[in-house]
Amino acid sequence: MPQVAGPAIRDQQLVAEFIWRVPHIERKLQLAQAGRLSHLLSERFYSSAQGYLLQMQVKFQNTSLGLYLRLLEGRNDASLKWPFDKRFHLLVLDPREGVGHGAVSVDPMDPRVGQEACSASFWRPLAQNDACGSANALSYDQLYEKKLIRYGAILLKAIIYLEEVLPPRFATLTFQENYMSARFEWLVPDLPSKINQFREGQLAFLDSDKFYLSNNGYRMMLRLYPEKARGFVGLYAVLTRGAYDAELRWPFPHAYSLEASVEGRPPLRRTTRPGHGCPNVAFQRPDRELSEWSCGEGHMVAHETLLGPERQDGPLPLGVRFAITVFLQELVSPVASLRLEGSVLVAKHSWILKDATANLGLLKEQLIGLHWSLQVGPHDDALQWPFMSSISLSLETGTTSLVRLIDRHQCPIGTFDRPTGPGQYCGFPTLITLTTLFSEYIQRDMVHIKASISLS
Questions:
Q1: Phi, psi for 343 (deg, rounded to 5)
Q2: Beta carbons of 113 and 107 less than 8 angstroms apart
Q3: Beta-strand (E) ranges in 171-250?
């Protein structure tokens, strides 16, 4: 009869914990290295009395120990949710201190896991599913170096995250950039070790706590990839299932800014708008605990930037603060200024991009683009469509300007039609080199960008 894993509270979640003692491990390692033993299976166990039936698996590789978890056909399957969506950790316990080593973290809702690496692991099982985990949880040498073998045995532990049990967290409401905004900050300590764990295959990502943007609002979290692309930390926003989803507007309509703050440096910011650069599914109402897709920036901050030019061979900062600011409601709609130029009435709007060095400094040896789009407005019913006015975009200083007129024939179809959602962008993808921008158009660490629209 399978036993039931022990319940515990961890990271604001009710978890199931199962410990597996593997005796005579040194003899088993000898058999494995002689090609006479490939794997071991734990006793079967339930995640709870009404939960999933599971089993741990050890696979012996050439030089390392692989840790896996698999689903088995159980008595409760007809009443459970499928596919299985509970994240879990697998680790080797230090019998002296109770801490874990060689942690394997798996989230079935991560598309790289549920759809690629372990695509056959989380559906309702017939007999048993394929196991999911890591082939390189811990090397054989580390078992001895870390003194994890005690009385001839090792202790393995599975932690399955079942559900939240503590009161929900909320973002802080602020007023920023003419918007009522929701801001959530997340301090990630010891990021260097997280990057190393990722490179060694022990860590796929880090998740913040889940939080609501406001009372009766959307619920989301931040997801950090210590090395999303080689040499870069990636930061993403993930919508999560919330208590008020049935009453909210979908797809998620709000723009948001992602931020990384490294000690002693200006914050790095990247702004994302639904409908631009991310799949639409990332903003749909989640039909499971986490949205299947996330949206953010794979090149949020370079490892080189974390080190700093003066500390290329030194330690990384101990803590990096990540944040998201979601722009919930515009307080006062900005209005362009009007002026006569000759006999033409022209509307002009200026955008001052602050902290230009931090926000553009990662784009080394790249060209800078500048684009424009129509957005849904409160007066669209009374306006004539398509939009027929000419538009110019410019970079300005007190003495120098770079002006370009938008050629509507070079714009995507629908750019000038009445918008029903996020508009089509049109402009100049290669307006200026980063070197020229920094040398000629940045003053007091700001860039002055202007749009001019001829109205008559």
A1: -110, 15
A2: yes
A3: 172-176, 179-189, 206-207, 211-212, 219-225, 232-240
pLDDT tens digits along 103-120: 888 988 787 786 678 988
H-helix or E-strand containing 20? strand 13-22
* Complete DSSP assignment for 53-117: EEEEEEEE-SSEEEEEEEEE--TTGGGS-SS----EEEEEE-TTT--EEEEEEE-TTSHHIIIII
Q: How far apart are CA 306 and CA 326, in angstroms?
A: 25
Provide the token pair at 207: 């998740």
Give the pairing type, strands 3-4 and 45-46: parallel
One-letter amino acid of 151 = Y
DSSP character string of 159-191: EEEEEE-SPPEEPEEEEETTEEEEEEEEEEE-H
What does the pLDDT read at residue 21?
Answer: 95
Amino acid at 362: L
Q: Are 282 and 295 in contact (CB under 8 A)?
A: yes
Q: Coil, helix or strand for 5?
A: coil
The residue among 185 and 434 whose pLDDT is bigger is 185
**311-357 pLDDT per residue, tens:** 445 555 557 899 999 999 988 878 999 999 888 999 999 999 888 87
Beta carbons of 237 and 211 less than 8 angstroms apart: no
In whole angstroms, give the CA distance from residue 155 to residue 159: 13
Averaged confidence pLDDT in the chain:
88
Task: Quote the percentage of the chain above a pLDDT of 90.
Answer: 55
Residue 265 tokens read as 């440096």
With contact defined as beta carbons under 8 Å apart, do 206 and 190 qualify?
no
**Which structure tokens are listed for 158?**
């599975």
What 132-135 contacts at long range (C-beta under 8 Å, 24+ apart), as own/partner pairs, is 132/68, 132/69, 132/70, 132/106, 132/108, 133/57, 133/66, 133/67, 133/68, 133/69, 133/90, 133/104, 133/106, 134/66, 134/67, 134/68, 134/90, 134/104, 134/201, 134/202, 135/59, 135/61, 135/64, 135/66
Side chain identity, residue 147:
K
For the entire predicted model, the pTM comes to: 0.59
In the 8-state DSSP scheme, what is residue 43?
Answer: -
Residue where the block lists tokens 């991560």: 110
Locate tokens 């840790």: which residue?
Answer: 67
Rounded mean pLDDT of 398-418? 92
Please choose, from the candidates 368, 228, 348, 243, the residue with its C-alpha nearest in 3D space to the C-alpha of residue 298: 228
